[in-house]
């Protein structure tokens, strides 16, 4: 079942754009791991926050991706840019009004 | 600029699945209005909540869609299913690691 993971990542003040650049760096291994969509963005009302919206083939595919060496290395590399504040939610996708 | 709108809709207790069915009913006018993605789902950890993740061609397209007669009628029809609790966030998409 398609799984959605939507979240906010707090950035160290002044490091938001660097964190965005890190997150949008091309990572084809994510698609191989079952990532269907991974959109990264900002909202200037919250200038120290990065937003992500992800879709995965399953919750298990998402969990397993966090164990990939490339993903672990990427998380380690991002750590100095993160304030430690995280938010968001996850859900199982049941459908879309854009599909019949 | 692609715009993401991600949110939670509180359902009247016992009405969650009816609200999901309402939200995923095929609505081709959304695509015509600039909706690129509209995923609806649930998380059994929050049994009275429906989750949505939307992508639009722009924030303006999203705003304008709320004025469409079909969308206004749909919102009015959903109102008895809604508890009145809403959450979530919106952001401007800057990129994706799935794209070069």
Automatic annotation (TrEMBL), chains A, B:
Keyword tags: Monooxygenase, Oxidoreductase
All residue ranges annotated as the ABM domain in the record: 3-91
The domain of life for this entry's organism is: Bacteria
Signal sequence segment: none
Recorded hits in Pfam families, A to Z, give: ABM
| UniProt keyword annotation of Secreted present | no
UniProt-listed InterPro entries: ABM_dom, Dimeric_a/b-barrel
- Check the record and name the SUPFAM superfamilies matching this protein: Dimeric alpha+beta barrel
The Gene Ontology terms for molecular function here are: monooxygenase activity
Listed name of the protein:
Quinol monooxygenase YgiN
């Amino acid at each position: 079942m398609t799984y959605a993971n939507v979240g906010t990542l707090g950035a160290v003040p002044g490091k938001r754009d660097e964190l965005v650049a890190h997150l949008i760096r091309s990572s084809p291994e994510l698609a191989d791991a079952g990532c269907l969509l991974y959109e990264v963005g900002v909202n200037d009302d919250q200038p120290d926050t990065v937003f992500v919206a992800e879709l995965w083939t399953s919750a298990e595919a998402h969990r397993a991706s966090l164990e990939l060496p490339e993903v672990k290395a990427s998380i380690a590399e991002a750590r100095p840019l993160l304030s430690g504040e995280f938010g968001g939610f996850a859900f199982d996708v049941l459908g879309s009004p854009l599909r019949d």
